[in-house]
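Changelog note: in this version the structure field was regenerated for every chain. One regenerated record is shown below for reference.
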Amino acid sequence: MTEKDVQWLTYHCNVEYMLHTALEQLYRIDNKDDTDFDSSILSDCSIGS
């Protein structure tokens, strides 16, 4: 892997994390009845070996 690949993966993971966090916050705003957020909608950002 080159440095450019690592930078791209880091950027991708950061964007995915931000989107996941934003969606979770929106879900909580829309559902104030303490409904559990389904975190399986978006997978965690992980780099497979």
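Spot check on this record: Residues 3-30 form the longest helix (28 residues). The radius of gyration is 14 Å.
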